[in-house]
Amino acid sequence: MRDYSVRLLTDLLGIYSPSGKEENISNFLVKEMETLGFRVRKDAIGNVIGEIGKGEPTILLCGHMDTIVGNLPVRVENNKLYGAGAVDAKSSLAAMIIAAATLARESALQAKVLVVGAVEEEATSKGIKHIIKQGLQADYAIFGEPSGVENITIGYKGSLHLKITCKTETGHSSTPWFYENALEKAFELWQRIKNAYPPVEEQESPYHAVTACLVKLTGGKGNSKVPSESEMRVDIRVPPQLTVAQVFNVIESVIKQYQTANLKVQVKVTIWDQNEPFEVAKNSLLVRALSYAIRKVQNKPATLLRKTGTGDMNILGRATNIPIVTYGPGDSHLDHTKDEHILISEYLAGIQVYKETILKLSELHKKSGSQ
Ligand SMILES: [Zn+2]
Question: Which of 75, 97, 99, 244 has the least C-beta neighbours within 10 A?
Answer without folding.
Answer: 75
